[in-house]
Design goal:
Helix content: over 70%
Shape: globular
Structural class: mainly alpha
Number of strands: 0
Distance between the termini: 69 Å
Number of helices: 20
Largest sheet: none
Order of helices and strands: HHHHHHHHHHHHHHHHHHHH
Length: about 375
């Protein structure tokens, strides 16, 4: 248990090298003990660590091992929570739809067990289900799960805890994704302020909460506030973790998305390309690499650099399909390919038909895609 506590602290703080060494030493011992709950929790955290370092195959195997052990042994929900949170928060988004669906079923099975029906672990599982909904592109489900988790924290007398404050930040991000921007801003700003006051600016939970607030500000179209917060967070993360850390790369992705939404395409291109430079160790089908490449392609297209943007269009769409990422990511990639085809061989009717088909798959926060699709639809004779 002491090794697990130390590992949890290292993973949360982003101390990658220390956590990796502890996994190498402690996980075999946890397995050898034959105590499934401890082995499950240890495997989950080691999987989360492998995910953060871009070791997709190792991460997937460890996280699934953790989930299997948790289910087979009535173990704590910690293992499954770590597995599901890793799919989004720790920087790879490598879980395919099938894996995400399997984890969701496991989480729902755990949450239905009587000991969890009114406990803090149930709240953690609800948060994990929200993360799975994010991975699959179901923003409304994510908001429902996060609201339920926050209400459970409050019912348990933990409404003033750091966990509840972090949930407020995440709930704000989810609410903004479905268009409830004023409530999103109110709840996210409250959560971020609480974290600053209780934990301080450099605590990993505060950093994640303020990152969620920056996304919320972006989705609410408060672009100047969002840019200021991203710049502050990027400088802080560089100082704490170094330029190549996955948390720095995640912030560059979010900054590129913000710049695209705000029509600052040169900034978007610079952020995406810096991110690509920082992840040289990741493979060509790594999901973070694919998302950065997509931001780069979108920025090039909006800057009028058609040849550069369109050369990567079809190959990028094929790689995104291979990873089975969200409908939004695939739809945006398909829309870019359609725009490239229209640029090469103009066909207004075909472009409008593609826009009409893809637009319903776009969430409210897919601002650039919606903006360009609406422009195509408005050109109808």
């Amino acid at each position: 248990d002491g090794q697990l506590d130390a590992l949890l602290a290292e993973v949360t703080a982003g101390l990658d090298a220390d956590a990796a060494r502890r996994c190498d030493e402690a996980l075999p011992k946890a397995r050898a003990l034959g105590f499934a709950p401890l082995a499950a929790a240890m495997a989950a955290q080691c999987g989360r660590q492998a995910m953060a370092q871009g070791q997709a195959d190792a991460a997937r195997a460890l996280l699934l091992e953790a989930a299997r052990l948790a289910l087979s042994s009535n173990a704590s929900a910690l293992a499954l929570v770590a597995a599901t949170l890793a799919t989004r928060n720790e920087g790879l988004l490598a879980s395919q739809y099938a894996t995400a669906t399997a984890w969701q079923a496991m989480a729902e099975g755990l949450a239905a067990r009587p000991p969890l029906d009114r406990s803090s672990e149930r709240a953690e599982l609800l948060s994990a289900l929200a993360e799975l909904a994010d991975v699959r592109g179901y923003a409304r489900d994510a908001a429902v799960h996060r609201r339920a988790a926050l209400e459970l924290h409050e019912a348990l007398g933990r409404g003033a805890s750091a966990d509840a404050s972090a949930l407020r930040c995440e709930l704000g991000q989810a609410l903004a994704a479905v268009g409830d921007t004023q409530q999103a801003l109110d709840v996210a700003k409250r959560g971020a302020t609480e974290l600053l006051e209780s934990l301080g600016k450099t605590h990993p939970v505060t950093i994640r909460g303020r990152s969620a607030l920056a996304v919320t500000l972006t989705r609410a179209r408060h672009f100047d506030e969002a840019f200021a917060l991203y710049e502050e967070e990027l400088a802080l993360k560089r100082g704490l973790y170094g330029d190549g850390h996955h948390r720095v790369v995640n912030t560059l992705i979010n900054a590129a998305e913000l710049a695209l939404d705000a029509a600052r395409y040169d900034v978007a291109l610079a952020s995406a390309r810096e991110g690509l430079l920082r992840i040289t160790a990741r493979g060509p089908d790594d999901a973070i690499r694919l998302f950065l490449a997509q931001k780069e392609q979108e920025a090039l297209l909006e800057l009028g650099r058609w040849d550069e943007a369109c050369a990567a269009g079809e190959p990028l769409l094929a790689r995104l399909r291979k990873q089975q990422l969200s409908d939004e990511a695939l739809g945006r990639a398909e829309w870019l390919v359609a725009r490239c085809k229209h640029h090469t061989a103009p066909d207004d009717a075909a472009l409008r038909a593609t826009a009409a088909r893809l637009r319903p798959t776009m969430p409210p926060d897919a601002m650039l895609a919606l903006r360009t699709m609406d422009a195509a639809l408005a050109s109808a004779p």
